[in-house]
Amino acid sequence: MRTSIFLAAVILFGGMLAWGQAAPQAAKAELKDAQGQPVGNATFTQTPAGVEIAVTVTHLPPGTHGIHIHAVGQCEPPDFKSAGPHFNPTNKKHGLKNPEGHHAGDLRNLVVSDDGTGTYHAVDADVTLAPGPNSLLSPTGTSLVIHAAPDDDVTDPSGNSGARIACGVIVQQ
Ligand SMILES: [Cu+2]
């Protein structure tokens, strides 16, 4: 009896240790434009409510831009097609306002001021930094992509947000 309690405690403690090691708490992405120039960075922090995303950008066209998490951790300029479609592990339709949505990688728009700078903050409840299907740190990776035009939050699968103008691979910090 005493041995089995001891064993249970060892297994529980070992499991907690393994979980602690396996669950990253932070990630980052360095954003570059189609010419390969740095245009900002993003941090991703695990919280109980989801992944908190903080983005700072510079040297981008003023206005409203679609911003999403895309399904592949590759940012090959100039078109960044290598980043794949929106991160969508649950096979939903695109758009935060789409009744059949939304992609886990869908985010509300980023606003860039007249001087080309912008800051952005969001919490994405549909993704995690921990292992699993919704992980931003999956084996194929994920990336953060900024588009030329605003996301209309309904058009599947892209939000009609135009060309990809900046991209950064999301990596564990
Ligand atoms: Cu996108």
Taking Cα atoms only, what radius of gyration do you get, to the nearest Å? 18 Å
What fold name stands as the CATH topology?
A: Immunoglobulin-like
Overall geometric form: globular
Strand content: 25-35%
Low-confidence stretches: 10-14
Number of helices: 1
Please state the second-level CATH architecture.
Sandwich
* Number of separate structural domains: 1
* Overall residue-averaged pLDDT value: 91
Bound ligands: copper (II) ion
CATH class group: Mainly Beta
Give the termini distance in whole angstroms: 44 Å
| Helix and strand sequence | HEEEEEEEEEE
State the share of residues found in helices, binned by percent: 10-25%
- Secondary structure tally: strands: 10
Give me the CATH superfamily.
Superoxide dismutase, copper/zinc binding domain
Largest sheet: 8 strands, antiparallel
Structural class: mainly beta
Task: Kindly summarize this structure in a few lines.
By secondary structure, this protein is mainly β. The protein is built from one helix and ten strands; from the N terminus they run H-E-E-E-E-E-E-E-E-E-E. Strand 1 (26-33) and strand 2 (38-47) form a beta hairpin.
